[in-house]
Automatic annotation (TrEMBL):
Amidohydrolase-related domain ranges (all copies): 48-339
Single GO term (MF): hydrolase activity
Species this protein is from: Spirosoma endophyticum
Taxonomic lineage of the native organism: Bacteria, Pseudomonadati, Bacteroidota, Cytophagia, Cytophagales
Protein name: Amidohydrolase-related domain-containing protein
UniProt keywords, alphabetically: Lyase
Pfam families reported in the protein's UniProt record: Amidohydro_2 (PF04909)
InterPro entries linked to this entry: ACMSD, Amidohydro-rel, Metal_Hydrolase
Length: 345
């Protein structure tokens, strides 16, 4: 009902009433009834999640997961079986999607319900399906982590097609490579030339990453200072450090201080490490003056409810103001990815 309709109906009620007092009461009830009737739920404020993995669901790896499972990193013995990487011993473990269809339906539902846009990378077919199912809500990225993934020419052709608007997730750390390794330089040069923002994984991968199937992984290659040479070679590159370089907070702050266009995302560590640790890290970044350079990201894998789990960390951060939360959830990503804020209302 529009304001005009309501005013018209209201004067009709007033004119038809013989006794003015009764009229007034009737009119008041009408107004209350009309505003109740109008109680259309307001659309939530827009969110941009800059770190989503669009992957094929493997039903045999679809296991339950307890958020913040890395609060306990027990000692072990190489001669004994390692404890499971994930932990499902909590009251309400998150449920995995069991098929690609189930995952897509849950992701699309979450984007519409939460008024959310995602930057997603991974399987090209899954990305295409998600984009089609939620027009305007999926920004596709393509990652290169080693020269063995694809040639610079193939990468440049993919970027030029227009389908991909972001380079990510780039994760040389898992390949035993520094992000400044010259074997990756041609890819960053292509992204710089085409004005494509780049997201690089710098951080941890969970407990015992080097012991369980990622033998090339090196914690030291997550050092944010390793980005400096590459940044110096590509001064126009727009770079965001994924996982905020956790736990290398001092290096992260020094790098952002020296490089004014570097941003971070909060993906992954906000739902895996102990909550006091997450808040201490985030608070330190804000306290150091970088509240305008932090972007919200989930690192969504196969548990659709991870969106809400991760958002709750920001919502419950009592040391952040409303404006600081809006910067993290939306405004900073709009600025970083050069988006048009008016298209997200
Ligand atoms: Zn990552």
């Amino acid at each position: 009902m529009t304001d005009f309709d309501m005013n018209k109906n209201l004067s009709a009620v007033m004119n038809a009433c013989p006794a003015r007092l009764v009229c007034l009461i009737t009119a008041c009830l009408f107004i209350v009834g009309a505003s109740w009737g109008q109680a259309v739920p307001r659309r939530p404020l827009p969110i941009i999640d800059v770190h989503v993995h669009a992957m094929k669901v493997n039903p045999s790896f679809a296991v339950e997961m307890c958020p913040w499972f890395l609060r306990d990193m027990p000692g072990g013995d190489p001669n004994q079986q390692m404890r499971a990487f994930l932990n499902a011993e909590c009251a309400t473990p998150l449920q995995p999607a069991k098929s690609d269809q189930e995952m897509q339906a849950a992701v699309v539902d979450a984007m519409q319900r939460l008024n959310m846009t995602i930057v997603a990378y991974g399987d090209p077919q899954i990305l295409r399906n998600w984009k089609k199912a939620a027009p305007g809500r999926v920004i596709a990225g393509i990652g290169v982590s080693s020269p063995n993934d694809m040639s610079v020419k193939a990468f440049t052709d993919s970027l030029s097609s227009g389908f991909y608007e972001v380079m990510g997730e780039v994760a040389p750390q898992y390949q035993g490579l520094s992000p400044s390794d010259m074997s990756l330089d041609g890819y960053f040069a292509a992204a710089e030339k085409l004005n494509i923002p780049v997201g690089i994984h710098m951080g941890t991968g969970g407990n015992g990453m080097a012991n369980i199937g990622q033998s090339k992984y090196r914690a030291s290659l997550g050092s944010p200072f390793l980005l400096e040479d590459m940044l110096a070679r590509h001064p126009k590159l727009k770079l965001w450090v994924m996982h905020a370089g956790y736990p290398m907070i001092d290096q992260m702050i020094a790098l952002m201080g020296a490089n004014a266009y570097v941003y971070v995302d909060l993906a992954g560590f906000i739902w895996s490490y102990p909550q006091a640790e997450i808040h201490a890290y985030l608070k330190r970044l804000v306290q150091a003056g970088f509240g305008k350079r932090i972007m919200y990201g989930t690192d969504l894998l196969i548990w659709p409810k991870l969106f809400e789990t991760s958002i709750s960390i920001i919502e419950n951060a009592d040391y952040l103001s409303f404006d600081q939360k809006r910067d993290i959830m939306f405004n900073n990503a709009v600025r970083f990815f050069r988006l048009d804020a008016s298209k997200f209302k």
